[in-house]
Write a structure and sequence with these properties.
The protein is mainly α. It starts with 7 loop residues before the first helix and ends in an 8-residue tail after the last helix. The mean pLDDT is 86.
Amino acid sequence: MQIKGSSRLLHLAAVAGVMWLLILISLTLSDYFTRGWVPLSH
């Protein structure tokens, strides 16, 4: 995707999309690492 020669609005949308992706990944990882995984005892 060539975004270098594009408008400023497209740059803003691309940066916002990357930041949103990073927020979602960080929230997913924080949930995964802080969840109390209790092993099942048989």
